[in-house]
Amino acid sequence: MSERRRPHRGSGRRGDHRDAKGSGGVPVDPKGQSHPDELTEPDDLTDLADVTVDGGTDREPDEPADRDEPGSVERKPRRGAGASRRARGVSGLRLLLLTVGAIVVVIALTAVAYFSPLMSVRTIEVTGNSIVQSPEIVAAAALSKGEPLMQVDTAAAAQRVSMIPRVATVRVKREYPSTITVSVVERQPVVFTERDGKRYLMDKLGFEFAQQDPPPGLAELVTSNPGSGDPSTRAALSVMTGVPAYVADQVARIEVTSPVNIVLQLKDNRTVVWGDDERNGEKAETLRHVLGQEGTEYNVSSPQNPTFK
Predict the structure, then answer these.
(1) Is residue 95 part of a domain?
(2) Which spans does this entry mark as compositional bias, Basic residues (predicted)?
(3) Which CATH number covers residue 233?
(4) DSSP string for residues in the chain
(5) What's the rounded mean pLDDT across residues 87-108?
(6) I want to staple 218 with a disulfide (CB 3.0 to 4.6 A). Which of 87, 94, 214, 286 is the partner?
(7) Residue 52 within any structural domain of the chain
(8) Which residue segment(s) compose the domain that 219 sits in?
(9) Could you read off the pLDDT of 221-249 as tens digits, one per residue?
C-alpha cells in the first residue's frame, strides 16, 4: 500500500488548500470521498478579517488622551457657572425687594391720601358759570371743607349739581393736594315759548329750563305742544340751530303746524315759507339772495326753485 501524505499546514497555497476540501469545509481523500463527520479548522487564517479601530492612537484604553493627539477633545470645566447662577439669584432677590417696597410705598401714600387731614378739601372752585351763582352750585354739590380728598364722591356731587335746571353738563374732579373743581356748562336759550301768560326759555334740546322774560332778540316758538318730545318742536329747533346767524337773527317768530310745515316770521314782518327741516344750509343761502327782491312772502322750501310775492 502506498502511504498517504497529509499536507503540512500552511505549506500549500491557498488555492491548493481550497481544492482539498469539499463544500462546507469537509475534507476529501484522494479518491474523492468525503468525510462529513470529520470537521477541520481552516488552515488559512487569512480568511478571517480582524478590524480594530483605535481612533488613531496606540495608547492603552485607560491611558488619558494627549491634547496633542489628533482626534482627541479635551473637556475644560465651565468656569463661572456657579457665579452666574448666584448673580441671577441676587438680581432676582433685589427685584423682589424693590417690588415689595414699591407696593408698600403706594399703600402708604394711598392711606395718607384717604385718611390723613393733610390732603383734605380746603378749596372748592366753580368754573363755566355765568348765570347760576357759584354759592348755589357749591350748595347743590354738598361738598364739605375738611373732608379727606379721596373720600369725596365726585359722581354723586356732579349728579346733585345737574339738578339745577340751567346746568346742561357738570364735571367734578379732584385736584391734589386739596382742591375740588366743579366745571359746568349752562343751557343757552334758542327760542322761548309762552303759555298762560308766562314765558319759558327753551334750549336746543327742547328743555324749558327757566321761566322768565326772554333776552332781547330771542325768537318765539309757536306750536300746539312745545316740548322735547314733540316732533314739531324738534323740527323748529333743528332749523334755528342749523341756519347761519344772519338768518336766525332776523327771525321774530317760528310757527310750526307740522314737522314739514315751518314758517318763519321775520322782524320786518316779512314771511318765509321754510317747509321741513332738511337742507337748511341751502335754504338759508337761497333766502339770502331772494330777500333782496321786493316782496312780503318768500318760499324757499325748494331751494333750487324759490318764489316770492
Answers:
(1) no
(2) 1-12
(3) 3.40.50.11690
(4) -PPPPPPPTTTS-HHHHHHTB-TTS-BB-TTS-B-TT-----S-GGGS------TT----TTSPPPTTSTT--PPPP-TTHHHHHHHHHHHHHHHHHHHHHHHHHHHHHHHHHHH-GGGB--EEEEES-SSS-HHHHHHHHT--TTSBGGG--HHHHHHHHTTSTTEEEEEEEEETTTEEEEEEEE---SEEEEETTEEEEE-TTS-EEEESPPPTTPEEEE-SS-STT-HHHHHHHHHHHHS-HHHHTTEEEEEEEETTEEEEEETTS-EEEEESSSSHHHHHHHHHHHTTSS-SEEE-SSTTS-EE-
(5) 80
(6) 214
(7) no
(8) 189-308
(9) 999 999 999 999 999 999 999 999 999 99
In a domain, 29, yes or no: no
> Which pTM value belongs to this model?
0.63
Do 210 and 281 lie in one domain? The reply is yes
Check whether residue 177 and residue 202 sit in a common domain: no
pLDDT digit string (tens) for 257-288?
A: 999 999 999 999 999 999 999 999 999 999 99
Domain count, the chain: 2
Q: Is the pLDDT of residue 29 over 80?
A: no
